[in-house]
């Protein structure tokens, strides 16, 4: 800086290519000059910008260099050579760059986070206080984000704020004034740090496509003569991490006065998601339509209705868990769960043994839609159980089905109740095609590319809907060619073949003077097409590109690939092997005894690949590498690159393959039901967790319920050991999980996995969908010797996952 007396010195190598007056290169080593140049930037006092015009001429042997000043001030530049020094006639005034400007704060579509965007790349506050919002935002902003809010940089331009418990930050809506996101001054600067600090505030803008509210009302459609009825909307979705409001109503031609009294007794803030009715609140033989309007904090609302008939005789209480209308695709599996229990006959003075029995029989049928075979397969095995499982590719696209479950008393078959669910089937997207083949090839060598395609909606044997294929090609000559041109006619003649394989013969792909880059675009499509206006955004036509580098120098034809259960997709919980292959002239893998390999991940630091590998198998310089479980982030894509070099010939080649890491299921909830006892007795009292709304394109959603100590006892919370597993369930999109707990205070957690291993762990909440469920199970009283013996027996198995009391509802 000016007047500071500090200097900045940098050293760089200099090679002068000496030539005579005719342009001939001087090859005499005594004449050629190779030296090291040291440039020193000396700050000067009192200097101002020189305003004179200076003509810059370049002569043979000249060179250019540059430097980046690290601190503001006034500089002059002096270059020191072995024969003397040269000082620039100019001085340089260096100022701090303008501060990054906060341009927008937008609530995410999920409603659980806010994206704060800057107009320039930032230094991410030098990653100080990672995860904490207090060092980045004003105290008022931290307060409205809720307790435990987190802040993380999505990239250099975007800071994402994740709301905590009880947030009150509101975007601009028709009914509310927007809150502001205010930066803490002096913290965030430009990416290189040589800028002023960002400051200011921005109003929270509403999400572009906000999460919609979907009201789910679960309740019996037939109510026994002596039974109470519970209608719950706790499985409704669209809360965005905040409490929702529930407004209940009822309509009937019969007397509904007692029901309206129950509704008026609910909390005035409409926080209750349940309406509980006594057995005598409804008239025998009456038909009642119970409705609920569910509203989230943005004012978005949805309504659901259950029509219930009050029976004059005892009847099972049954309801299909979940919404009345389910939207799915042919490639997804479905599972419907019937929640049923035995009725009461006390008001009619009928004993359970003689009139009601001890067992409920189930029967699932299809009452509307294209015919299904309930006599074979999974439908046959599950149609007489509480759960009906529909395998992928069972339902037809663009169709509507209505399934009904009938529950009847085994002791009195005519005492029965039923419920229905409507299924609307849309369209699946075809998977992104994967083009396999070498990424580098010698000039003039033959080339073979082939594509892998997969359609979750239709089997490959469905000849009525054939695949269509199209290949296109562009070539880029040299490193500076960014526009490209159409490939030569000799290549074009091999492209317009409706096949998933492309073969280019010898002598066509050439690079004579400069390297060439051939880009092949492959498009796959399959009927039926998605109708215009379809809201699912399914795509039955997709395009991908494959780049082949052809070098004018000796090149190895190199191919990279990996093996997985799903083409192009890595399961994060499993090891994944990657292979680098050198292809010979015959198209087969050639001898690689003289070839060395080096793997890297495009766009990642050099040490990233080493940290991701299972070192017991091999390092990044092996032909075959193995990525360790959990090394890659679910939902992200990684481009793995293999560089190969032949030590004998000096030929080089490389290949890349893109791998997508499978993401875990999303969109669901895990709620401790309202009928779970608040103070259970260890290993005796049964609690229930409702898991619903979880979806995954890979299907086969599975649940594992675990427990951990309350945060006040031990830090960490989420358990990893098998002793903490309460219930391991089978494949199920929705489930009511019943379990018992050992003595102590516990937090509950649900691990949700998909069919190929990706999983996420979420805390189980209370019915408000926000407050973590914390349950204290009390020790059993030791009133007698026999009780003491039972207590010891139960304690011995308190940590086992296979307890008889820990089971799924059947």
- Give the C-alpha Rg: 35 Å
Uncertain segments are 1-6, 44-60, 712-716, 783-810
Main β sheet profile: 6 strands, mixed
Q: How far is it from the N-terminal to the C-terminal residue, by CA?
A: 78 Å
Plain-language structure description:
The chain contains seven helices and 47 strands. The chain has 810 residues and is mainly beta. Residues 1-6, 44-60, 712-716 and 783-810 have low confidence and may be disordered. It has a six-stranded mixed beta sheet with strand order 7-8-6-5-10-9. A five-stranded mixed beta sheet has the order 25-31-30-27-28, with no helix packed on it. The protein is globular. Strand 27 and strand 28 (485-486) form a beta hairpin.
Write the layout of secondary structure elements.
Layout: E1 8-16, E2 33-43, E3 73-81, E4 84-94, E5 102-107, E6 113-118, H1 139-145, E7 150-153, E8 158-162, E9 180-182, E10 201-205, E11 222-223, E12 229-232, E13 245-251, H2 257-264, E14 274-277, E15 287-295, E16 301-310, E17 317-320, E18 325-328, E19 334-341, H3 352-356, E20 360-368, H4 377-382, E21 387-390, E22 399-409, E23 412-425, E24 434-436, E25 440-442, E26 447-452, E27 467-477, E28 485-486, H5 489-492, E29 501-504, E30 516-526, E31 541-551, E32 558-562, E33 569-570, E34 576-582, E35 595-601, H6 606-612, E36 624-627, E37 637-646, E38 652-661, E39 669-672, E40 687-692, E41 702-709, E42 725-731, E43 735-739, E44 744-753, E45 759-763, E46 774-777, H7 785-796, E47 807-808
Parallel strand pairs: 5-10, 11-16, 18-23, 25-31, 33-38
Antiparallel strand pairs: 1-2, 2-3, 3-4, 5-6, 6-8, 7-8, 9-10, 12-14, 13-15, 15-16, 17-19, 19-21, 20-22, 22-23, 24-26, 26-29, 27-28, 27-30, 30-31, 32-34, 34-36, 35-37, 37-38, 39-40, 40-43, 41-42, 41-44, 43-47, 44-45, 44-46
């Amino acid at each position: 800086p000016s007047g500071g007396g500090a200097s900045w010195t940098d050293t760089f190598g200099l090679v002068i290519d000496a030539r005579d007056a005719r342009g001939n290169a001087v090859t005499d080593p005594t004449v050629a000059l190779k030296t090291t140049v040291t440039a020193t930037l000396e700050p000067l006092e009192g200097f101002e910008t020189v305003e004179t015009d200076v003509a810059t001429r370049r002569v043979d042997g000249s060179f250019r260099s540059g430097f980046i000043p690290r601190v503001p001030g006034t500089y002059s530049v002096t270059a020191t050579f072995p024969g003397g020094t040269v000082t620039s006639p100019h001085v340089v005034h260096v100022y701090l760059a303008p501060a990054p400007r906060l341009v927008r704060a937008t609530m995410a579509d999920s409603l659980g986070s806010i994206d704060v965007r800057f107009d320039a790349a930032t230094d991410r506050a030098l990653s100080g206080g990672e995860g904490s919002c207090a060092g980045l935002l004003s105290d008022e902003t931290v307060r409205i984000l809720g307790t435990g809010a987190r802040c993380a940089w999505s990239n250099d331009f975007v800071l994402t704020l994740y709301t905590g418990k009880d947030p009150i930050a509101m975007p601009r809506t028709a009914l509310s004034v927007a809150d502001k996101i205010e930066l803490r001054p002096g913290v965030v600067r430009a990416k290189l740090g040589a800028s002023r600090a960002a400051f200011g505030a921005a109003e929270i803008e509403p999400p572009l496509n906000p999460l919609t509210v979907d009201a789910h009302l679960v309740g019996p459609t037939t109510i026994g003569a002596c039974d109470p009825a519970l209608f719950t909307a706790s499985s409704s979705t669209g809360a965005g991490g905040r409490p929702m409001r529930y407004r209940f109503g009822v309509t009937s031609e019969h007397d509904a006065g007692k029901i309206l009294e129950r509704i008026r007794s609910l909390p005035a803030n409409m926080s209750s998601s349940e309406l509980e009715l006594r057995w005598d609140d409804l008239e025998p033989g009456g038909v009642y339509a119970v409705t609920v309007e569910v509203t989230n904090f943005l004012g978005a609302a949805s309504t659901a209705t259950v029509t219930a008939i009050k029976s004059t005789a005892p009847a099972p209480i049954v309801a299909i868990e979940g919404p009345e209308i389910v939207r799915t695709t042919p490639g997804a599996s479905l599972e419907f769960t019937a929640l049923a229990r035995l009725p009461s006959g006390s008001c009619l003075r009928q004993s359970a043994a003689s009139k009601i029995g001890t067992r409920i029989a189930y029967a699932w049928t299809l009452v509307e839609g294209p015919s299904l075979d309930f006599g074979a397969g999974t439908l046959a095995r599950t149609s007489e159980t509480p759960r009906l499982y529909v395998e992928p590719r069972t339902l037809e696209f663009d169709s509507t089905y209505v399934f009904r479950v009938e529950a009847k008393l085994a002791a009195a078959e005519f005492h029965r109740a039923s419920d229905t669910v409507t299924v609307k089937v849309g369209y699946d997207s075809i998977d992104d095609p994967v083009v396999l083949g070498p990424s580098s090839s010698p000039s003039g060598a033959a080339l073979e590319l082939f594509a892998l395609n997969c359609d979750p909606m239709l089997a490959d044997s469905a000849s009525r809907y054939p695949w269509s294929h199209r290949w296109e090609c562009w070539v880029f000559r040299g490193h500076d060619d960014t526009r490209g041109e159409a490939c030569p006619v000799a290549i074009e003649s091999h492209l317009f073949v409706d096949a998933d394989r492309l073969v280019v013969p010898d002598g066509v792909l050439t690079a004579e003077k400069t390297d060439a880059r051939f880009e092949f675009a492959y498009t796959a499509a399959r009927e039926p097409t998605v109708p215009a206006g379809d809201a699912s955004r399914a795509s039955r036509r997709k395009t991908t590109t494959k780049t082949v580098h052809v070098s004018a120098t000796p090149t190895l034809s190199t191919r990279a690939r990996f093996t997985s259960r799903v083409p192009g997709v890595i399961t994060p919980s499993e090891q994944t092997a990657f292979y680098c292959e050198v292809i010979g002239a015959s198209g087969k893998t050639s001898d690689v005894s003289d070839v060395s390999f080096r793997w890297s991940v495009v766009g990642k630091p050099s040490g990233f690949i080493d940290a991701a590998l299972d070192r017991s198998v091999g390092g990044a310089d092996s032909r075959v590498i193995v990525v360790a479980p959990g090394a890659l982030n679910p939902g992200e894509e990684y481009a793995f690159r293999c560089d190969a070099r032949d030590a004998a010939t000096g030929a080089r080649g490389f290949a890349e393959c893109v791998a997508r890491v499978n993401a875990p299921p999303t969109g669901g909830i895990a709620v401790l039901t309202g009928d779970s006892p608040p103070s259970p007795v260890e290993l005796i009292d049964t609690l229930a967790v409702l898991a619903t709304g979880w979806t995954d394109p890979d299907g086969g959603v599975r649940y594992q319920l675990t427990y951990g100590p309350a945060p006040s006892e031990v830090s960490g919370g989420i358990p990893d050991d098998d002793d903490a597993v309460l219930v391991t369930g089978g494949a199920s999109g929705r489930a009511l999980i019943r379990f018992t707990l050992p003595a102590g205070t516990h937090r509950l957690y649900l691990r949700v996995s998909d069919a190929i291993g990706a999983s996420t762990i979420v805390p189980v909440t209370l019915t408000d969908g926000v407050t973590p469920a914390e349950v204290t199970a009390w020790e059993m009283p030791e009133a007698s010797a026999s009780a003491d013996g039972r207590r010891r027996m139960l304690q011995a198995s308190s940590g086992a996952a296979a307890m008889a009391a820990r089971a799924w509802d059947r």
